[in-house]
Specification:
- This protein has 94 residues and is mainly α.
- The chain has one domain.
- Helix content is 46%, strand content 4%.
- The chain is built from 5 helices and 2 strands; from the N terminus they run ααααββα.
- The chain has a two-stranded antiparallel ribbon.
- A hairpin with a 4-residue loop joins strand 1 and strand 2.
């Protein structure tokens, strides 16, 4: 019971603090991918599938080029990289 109380006392106080903690826990080597996934989702006009987000990663908006090297090999990696920020619904959309 003491472990539960300790964990509860360490929870962030605000939603902003919660998101800051989630983002801070993204491994540095995946930070750019996580940022790109969030950018893609923010501008989407409809719910996206994991495959659609993985495919959209090939567009480098900074250089304005199509870069197949940026394609995610396994779309499921999105769920691992953005674990608490992205979820998949029953329909398969993000």
């Amino acid at each position: 019971m003491q472990t539960v109380r300790k964990a509860l006392s360490e929870l962030p106080k605000t939603l902003d603090e919660t998101y800051q903690r989630i983002i801070a826990n993204i491994p540095e080597e995946y930070y750019q991918e996580a940022l790109r996934v969030m950018q893609i989702m923010v501008v989407a006009f409809r719910p996206l599938t994991l495959e659609a987000v993985a495919e959209a990663m090939v567009i480098d908006d900074r250089k304005e080029i199509f870069d197949p090297e940026c394609r995610m090999r396994d779309p499921m990696d999105i769920l691992e990289i953005c674990s608490s920020l992205v979820s998949v619904s029953v329909s398969g959309s993000l």
